[in-house]
Amino acid sequence: MKYEQKIKELGIDLPAGSEPKAMYIPVKQVGNLLFISGQLPAKADGSLLYEGKLGSELTLEQGQECARLCIVNMLAAVKFYLGDLDRVKNVVKVQAFVASKTGFDQQHLVTNGASQLLFDVFGEAGKHARTAVGINQLPMNSPVEVEAIFEVE
């Protein structure tokens, strides 16, 4: 199945890709690997879906929503770079950073929001190695940031 068609079937509208707002590039290709910069759960207007920390201001479900939106933004960045998501061969690795209150220990469950969407879009090719890390603070008071490595044809 074509991945962009699958995204439409899931009811997802990818935002338009754009140039970065700071000193980095969203996607760096080395050989057949794409290293995708950390994505925040930003809505189309640039504001964050939620702000704050998991375990205090936000629920597990809100964190999962954020992780999912990070992947939507990641797919938009990859599409902007490649021109066609059907060039994606595999999702190799995902790393998620979860802003967490001390004692919150469900970063892995927050990250499932990202992993599930990658599987829903790419099927078996969306299964990946993964790290989920709890941290004190993220840029712009974001609750979640997700980065990844994709293999492309």
UniProtKB/TrEMBL annotation:
Residues 7-145 form the Endoribonuclease L-PSP/chorismate mutase-like domain. Pfam families: YjgF_endoribonc. This is Enamine deaminase RidA (YjgF/YER057c/UK114 family). It comes from the Bacteria.
